[in-house]
Amino acid sequence: MKKMKADGVPISMITAYDYPSAKLAEEAGVDVILVGDSLGNVVQGQQSTLPVTLDEMIYHTKLVTRAISAPFVVADMPFMTYHGSLDQSLHNIGRLMREGLCKAVKMEGGVEIAHTVQASVQAGVPVMGHIGLTPQSVYQIGGYRVQGKNNEQARKLIDDAKVLEQAGAFAIVLELVTDELAEQITKQLSIPTIGIGAGPHCDGQVLVFHDLLQYASPVIPKKFVKAYANIGDSIRNGIAEYVKEVKNRSFPSQEHAFHAELEAAGPLYGGKSEG
Ligand code: KIV
Questions:
Q1: 74 within ligand 1 shell (Cβ under 6 A)
Q2: What is the 3-state secondary structure (H, E, C) of the chain?
Q3: In the CATH scheme, what architecture does the domain 2-230 have?
Q4: Measured from the CB, is residue 39 less than 6 Å from ligand 1?
Q5: Is 175 a catalytic residue?
Q6: Domain segments of the chain: what residues?
Q7: Mean pLDDT computed over 73-79
């Protein structure tokens, strides 16, 4: 990914949470797959990512890595699993890597988590940072708001990005930060930035699978999302057609039915076996 940044090659990243979504993402040629804790919102129907557990992240990461051969798979460390003692954090990070079989983990936060990032990197774990709007701190931030709009916030985010780079992070997600700030951070780092709602100047972009494909999402439209397909409508229409055909008895038709001559079928049907 560092080479892609150096060569000016944009990095494409998408979330996936299970075997079919990961398979389709790989077939479509994506560079990086993120098993995001956004699964709390889009798969579990929760109000935030906070209820997602380490065991759930491990389960979904397994489903994704089982499907993947080429793309680099990064998995999110969930809420409060990397904020206790360093020993406990490393234990949890080790579980996600060893059981989920991902190649890297992502952690939210800047200066506050730099020592954990550094210790993980020293232990051989590739770490992706995540700053700006950090959904695990949504209740502290007070909502899903664009970050870096004033000088104080902008300075803090630039510091966070530099400290994460020094701590050994190999890339940083910038979520919901102003275009101007994302451009500055991207220019000041040697590691790639991956933007979501952070404008076009980042080294790569990430979107949530369910958002970009309109898979029963979003309930509230998001300005930074572009919908590339509407599989929610396709699925709903397909199921409605199936229900209609079951009700009017046009499905199944004879073409979907199996037949056998009772006499020739043998003992299974209570007839006499010829052998
Ligand atoms: O959990 C997630 O999907 C994420 C992306 C929004 C970057 O962290």
A1: no
A2: CHHHHHHCCCEEEEECCCHHHHHHHHHCCCCEEEECCCHHHHCCCCCCCCCCCHHHHHHHHHHHHHHCCCCEEEEECCCCCCCCCHHHHHHHHHHHHHHHCCCEEEEEECHHHHHHHHHHHHCCCCEEEEEECCHHHHHHHCCCCCECCCHHHHHHHHHHHHHHHHHCCCEEEEECECHHHHHHHHHHCCCCEEEECCCCCCCEEEECHHHHCCCCCCCCCCCCCCCCCCHHHHHHHHHHHHHHHHHCCCCCCHHHCCCCCCHHHHHHHCCCCCC
A3: Alpha-Beta Barrel (3.20)
A4: no
A5: yes
A6: 2-230, 234-269
A7: 98
